[in-house]
Amino acid sequence: MFKGLIGRKIGMTQIFDSNGAAIPVTLLEAGPCFVSQVKTDKSDGYNAVQLAFGEMKPNRLTQAELGHLKTNNLPPVRVLREFRTKKVDEIKAGDELKANLFATDEYVDIVGITKGKGLAGVMKRHGFHGSQRTHGQSDRQRHAGSSGSTTTPGRVYKGKRMAGRMGNARVTSSHMRIALVDAERNLIAVNGPVPGPKGGTVVIKEARKQ
Question: What's this model's pTM, rounded to 2 decimal places?
Answer without folding.
Answer: 0.83
